[in-house]
Amino acid sequence: MNINLTLVMQAVAFFAFIWFCARFIWPPLMQAIETRQKQIAEGLAAGEAGKKSLATTEKRIAEMLTEAKSRSSEIIAQGDKLKTETIEAAKSEAKAEGERIVAAAKAEIEQEVARAKESLRNQVADLAVAGARQILQREVDPKAHADLLAAIQKQF
What is the enclosing helix (H) or strand (E) of 36? Predict the structure, then answer.
């Protein structure tokens, strides 16, 4: 009987231990496990959300890069166009300025030629009068002399 009583006492102690564990240890342990499972699930969900966010952010970055590249190429094209327009404007302005300078120089040359002709006419008239005076060896009236010079100038 000792074996039976020992066996029964061990069985009672075992059932008491099971009941104690089920009543006081198992619920907090299960609650801790469930809390940990929830944390792990939330962490995994956050990780997935982070991956999705990373993927969308990478797409946005790629789009922004392509947009920036196209914008930079547009800016470069505008710069080249502006450079060409500026060079062409400078060329046409320089050409117009050159033509204006040439026209002014031609006008000045024509004025100088006209002054030189006038001066030569006066000198020729003076020489003609001097030559005529020496030939005639007499004095000519200044009033008649001025009229004669004016008539000669009008002829040339």
Answer: helix 26-136
